[in-house]
Amino acid sequence: MKIVVDAMGGDYAPESIVAGVAEAIKEFDVNIVLVGIEDRIRAELKKHEYPGDRIEIAHAPTIVEMHEPATASLRSKKDSSISIGVNLLKEEGYDAFVSAGNTGAVVAASTIYLGMLNGVERPAIGLVIPTLKDFAFLIDVGANTDPKPEHLLQSALMAQVYAKEVLGVNNPKVGLMNIGEEAGKGSVFSKETFKLMEERVVDFNGNVEANDIFKGEHDCIICEGVMGNIVIKISEGLMESAAALLRREISKSPIALAGAFLMKSRLHHIKKLADYTEYGGAPLLGVNGIVMISHGRSSPKAIKNAIRATIREIEHHILDVMTERVARTAI
Amino acid sequence: MKIVVDAMGGDYAPESIVAGVAEAIKEFDVNIVLVGIEDRIRAELKKHEYPGDRIEIAHAPTIVEMHEPATASLRSKKDSSISIGVNLLKEEGYDAFVSAGNTGAVVAASTIYLGMLNGVERPAIGLVIPTLKDFAFLIDVGANTDPKPEHLLQSALMAQVYAKEVLGVNNPKVGLMNIGEEAGKGSVFSKETFKLMEERVVDFNGNVEANDIFKGEHDCIICEGVMGNIVIKISEGLMESAAALLRREISKSPIALAGAFLMKSRLHHIKKLADYTEYGGAPLLGVNGIVMISHGRSSPKAIKNAIRATIREIEHHILDVMTERVARTAI
Q: Is B166 found in the same domain as B312?
């Protein structure tokens, strides 16, 4: 098993990426190909101890910056770590690509170079989010901004496969994120999608309102890309604001400061529960290859967890299972 | 000045509504018409002291339940507190309608019975949300689920008027909620809306990502109804989940419990900052009348604050100012 990892992707690359890879290789039975600027990767690798024969380097001289327009970057930087990394998946023996780099560029490169899975028309990014019970798989969080109802159906089917094979959920229940719980709520798009899901998705649980997704009553929550992106951005923004407010309020009172000190370990535990990186990266589903997108601010642990999830995808032949599932439910 | 208040709307009606009205009438120079089941309103009124000549009752025998389908309820319950209340606005001397009842029914009744403001094609619900700096006015949070770009332009213009006249913000800056900050990001709809806003809205500040809306750099944040609804629902859901998690974690440790006790007053302050009801209700803009929607779980204070915001709308002749502003910027 050989996983290609973008050494140059993300805000803390290559340090954080290489450190995560060095941890992963000690923990998992996997070979890694680090793709990026060779000298810089070698310099980072020197800081770690690891079984040297299981890490290779594939040189890629350029880097797609985090805020670069995605499609333009593909044209102008054909030798970036993202382009070269994705293209390696087309060679025999390379099983998956992991990147904490520019999400748009990873989506575009994967879609263009790998093509789509049979029966799937658009890519979708899934993300494991924490809930009060355990976790849920939210899809799409931003790959497809103008979907049709059938794209959401395809995402739902892929999500169920991912939830079962990678996250270990039996008979994953699917909810459609909507503005109300009752059937017949929401936009024309939502109504059409609801109808399609009701007809085609086993264990379809109906609409789920946004405030209920954290309750944990649905294993897979399906929404269009802009909506999913807003959900994770709002969650991030709100949590950051709440933390900033908390610090501001605590600083006003020595008694509250003492209280915060006593609560520290429990607050830390909550922070951990709310930490998406615990669950690995965000799989890019629908393309004809296993691609995992890690958060731009990925820590070494996040990279290691992303590699772990990727290994499960490979072991469970997830592309074959998804293709079969989608074909079986084809419209 | 005479404000019609739906006595039967919301989860705690009529108790909470009547209590809020009794408070409002002591604090503000206003007359109130309570619309709803007369006997029940009289029974509640007996619990309070207030200047009796400034409260009237308009009997409405039926109630639209909170989860009843909106348009059907209008047809079957023409004598509900919502229908009768909205219709009173068409009589001379009645200035505004406040309801904590079924949002869909209030929107439908207002749109049908009052009609639209000149130059405005669709209604939109605005909501004041707390930010790290102060507050922002988010619109639309759910009135219009299938808008066109020009509807968002109209909402932006109305929002600027509301922010200035009611919230007291000079030269309110407008942001378009989108999946990325750069122009040219997002769906086809977002791109078209951006272009329109750039051409027509004074103080248009460009796109704002969902995680940045709480930073307080925009006074008015414009989005389509489904998106805005998701934002407030996610915020509610996340805050409830965070509180549930906090309680669960604290209960595991006596030390943390002691810490929470010490932090109590500060945590309470944060809760207050995050409490939408502090700012009054959510104005329904675009209809040819002043209509304020209060949260279904409105406390007496929330009702009082909603009445306060409504008074400002009346005093500042907001319908005239909006009509004039929209006409001036007509496409």
A: no
Pair A176, A222: CB distance under 8 Å: yes
Q: CB count, 10 Å around CB of B52? A: 9
Tally of structural domains, chain A: 2
Nearest CB to A236: which of B131, B142, B211? B211
> Is A210 in contact with B262 (Cβ distance < 8 A)?
no
Most confident range (mean pLDDT) of A289-298, B119-128, B227-236 is B119-128
Full domain range(s) for residue A192: 122-278
Q: Which residues of B touch A255 (CB under 8 A)?
A: 262
- To the nearest whole Å, the CA of A102 is away from the closest chain B CA by 13
Tokens of B121: 């094609």
| Span of A273-282, B72-81, B291-300, B314-323 with lowest mean pLDDT | A273-282
Q: Mutate one of B230, B245, B270, B275 to test the A interface: name it (highest A CB count within 10 A).
A: B230
Q: How far apart are CA A172 and CA A204, in angstroms?
A: 9
Digit-coded pLDDT (tens) for B173-224: 999 999 888 787 888 899 999 999 999 999 999 999 988 898 889 999 999 9
Residues of B in contact with A242 (CB under 8 A): 239, 242, 270, 274
Provide the b/e sequence for A179-192 (b: ≥16 CB within 10 Å): bbeeeebbbebbbe
> Quick check: is B329 in a domain?
no
Q: What is the pTM of this model?
A: 0.86
Flag whether pLDDT at A131 surpasses 90.
Answer: no
Do β-strands B55-59 and B31-36 pair in parallel, antiparallel, or remain unpaired?
parallel
Residue of B nearest to A253 (CA): B266
- Beta-carbon separation of B233 and A209 below 8 A: yes
Spatial separation of the C-alpha atoms in residues A227 and A214, rounded to whole Å: 15
Report yes or no on A331 lying in a domain: no
Q: Is the dihedral of CA B182, B186, B190, B192 positive or negative?
A: positive
Residues of B in contact with A135 (CB under 8 A): none
Listed in sequence order, the residues at least 6 apart from B304 whose beta carbon sits closer than 8 Å to its beta carbon are B20, B21, B23, B24, B27
Which residue of chain A has the CA closest to B243? A270
